[in-house]
Amino acid sequence: MEEWLIPAERRGRGSSVRSGEMAKLTRLIDNEVFWAYAAYATIVLLKMMLMSSVTAYFRITRKAFVNPEDTASFGKGESAKKFLRTDPDVERVRRGHLNDLENIVPFLGIGLLYALSGPELFTALLHFRIFAGSRILHTFAYLIPLPQPSRGLSWAAGYVVTISMAYQVLKTALYL
Amino acid sequence: MEEWLIPAERRGRGSSVRSGEMAKLTRLIDNEVFWAYAAYATIVLLKMMLMSSVTAYFRITRKAFVNPEDTASFGKGESAKKFLRTDPDVERVRRGHLNDLENIVPFLGIGLLYALSGPELFTALLHFRIFAGSRILHTFAYLIPLPQPSRGLSWAAGYVVTISMAYQVLKTALYL
Amino acid sequence: MEEWLIPAERRGRGSSVRSGEMAKLTRLIDNEVFWAYAAYATIVLLKMMLMSSVTAYFRITRKAFVNPEDTASFGKGESAKKFLRTDPDVERVRRGHLNDLENIVPFLGIGLLYALSGPELFTALLHFRIFAGSRILHTFAYLIPLPQPSRGLSWAAGYVVTISMAYQVLKTALYL
Q: Which CATH number do you get for residue C164?
């Protein structure tokens, strides 16, 4: 059972009912890896969602909006129009948000497939934790901002870890 | 079987073959939740994809392009260059599209994990429907545009529902 | 077992142990489809990640940055400030990257659900390959750039294939 959760090397083409026993053992390990993935994926997604709130916070405190309907409460006509402007802090948060999207989407997809490819728990946790840590560091490095190469290195750590998981997924998929 | 689909509270560490029976019952419920997720995830993704077509429609009708190669059919040189411009309607649709991305990506990831965490069908449907409704309302509020706080509230509804699902996922993942 | 992997038309509500046999057969097919999805999803995500590196490459070679802290190595004050500018090549890669995000996110979600809806391997491979091909062509069409409608057509191919998979997912989800 759960044959698609068994790592390729342990899986035979003509699997008998007995192989279900092995699958079960593997699956219990996969369970832990899967829910470890679930926890870290949820954490990085919540962190990414936080960026929306930070953007809204900066837009309101800096009074810097894009949509005319958002400035209606500041009065009509020219008096409200001056709030339709870009603010360096708002733009910085938005760049951080977009960078999150660009990097968390690959992690979501590749990480899920990696978790289902039957890696060892220790290795999987190492990957997930480096990724989550790299994105949290990246946010601090971007928003404070810290001098380079802090932001560059934190981005690179998550990038390399995602490629390492992608390699594992492709190996599993092609050995099938 | 399907043990990773069983909610943590019903799952024992040293599960015997008999626990497979319970798993089976749970899985049948999970089935419905999973495919409910599938339906709503597909609907919001199709809605998001529609934004690409709306952008293309406005670019062509407003004659507002970004890439020089896109204006080649309007003639060469200066006559085509005047179509390389931004248009408020195009920019509005693009902002709506980006907001979709920023909010639908967390729903995709967290919603899938939530559906696999074994929630009750009624609760799950409530979450999925509020989210899908909030994104559809958000699009209308952005494109018409409706006066605030329509757009703000429709965005917030989807945001809160995603956090509620994230809480459930983390609870399941950490009880494992 | 794996009942949620069985296409709706073959699945009975009151499934007996015997239906597990059928499920197993179906699952073996699903296995192949699932890992085919895994391979193509990973390939398009790696391609998308490549856009980050291409952006970084152009930013460094064209000396065109957004963040003041990125130009610190070029000296202080006014001498570094002139590198805070937009460059047409950098902007072009960034647009390609955003277009990837807008199209690969729907593929990731809908493609996964489609792979779990029990399609035939041949049909599934056709969908996955057209999508992956369309995104690779789109990148070349955008970055070289090729004259239109190369970019438009390559984008449309991936769009249509995703809608075709979405239709299959909705059919499976609603027949449950």
A: 1.20.120.550
Band (A32; pLDDT cuts 50, 70, 90): confident
C-beta of residue A66 within 8 angstroms of C-beta of residue B95: yes
**Contacts with B1 from chain A: Cβ below 8 Å:** 1-2, 24
- Give how far Cα B147 sits from Cα of A69, B12, B58, B88, B168, Å: 6, 53, 22, 17, 34
CA-closest candidate to residue B162, choices B104, B117, B122: B104
| Subunits in contact with chain C (3 or more CB pairs closer than 8 Å) | A, B
In a domain, A142, yes or no: yes
Task: Provide the domain count of chain B.
Answer: 1
Distances, alpha carbon B19 to alpha carbons B29, B166, C84, in Å: 16, 27, 62
Q: With beta carbons less than 8 A apart as the criterion, state whether A47 and A139 touch.
A: yes
Tens digit of each residue's pLDDT (9 = 90 or more) over C107-141 = 999 999 999 888 999 999 999 999 999 999 999 99
Subunits close to B (at least 3 CB pairs below 8 A): A, C
C74-111 as b/e, with b when 16 or more CB fall inside 10 Å?
A: eeeeeebeebeeebebbebbbebbbbbbbbbbbbbbbb
Question: What is d(CA B136, CA B156) in angstroms, rounded to the nearest whole number?
Answer: 13
**ipTM value:** 0.81
Query: For residues B95 and B82, what is the distance between their CA atoms, to the nearest angstrom?
Result: 23
Looking at the domain assignment, is residue A70 inside a domain?
no
Q: Is A32 on the interface with B (CB under 8 A)?
A: yes
Q: Using an 8 Å Cβ cutoff, are C142 and C96 in contact?
A: yes
pTM value is: 0.83
Q: Are B90 and B58 contacting, i.e. CB atoms less than 8 angstroms apart?
A: yes
Structure tokens at C80: 């570094």
- Chain A contact probe: residue of B2, B4, B9, B172 with most A CBs at under 10 A: B4
User: How far is Cα A128 from Cα A123, in angstroms, rounded to an integer?
Assistant: 9
Q: Judge whether C22 lies within some domain.
A: no
- Comparing CA positions, the residue from C99, A7, C143 lying closest to residue B49 is C99
Q: Is B20 helix (H, G, I), strand (E, B) or coil?
A: helix
The range of the structural domain enclosing residue C91 comes to 40-49+87-174
Instruction: Check CB contact of A38 with chain C, cutoff 8 Å.
Output: no
pLDDT, tens digit, for every residue of B65-97? Answer: 888 888 888 777 777 788 888 889 999 999 999
In a domain, C60, yes or no: no
Nearest Cα to B168, choosing from A105, A38, A96, A86?
A38
Neighbours of B111 (CB within 10 A): 26
Dist. CA B13–CA B124, nearest whole Å: 26
CB contact under 8 A, C163 and B46: yes
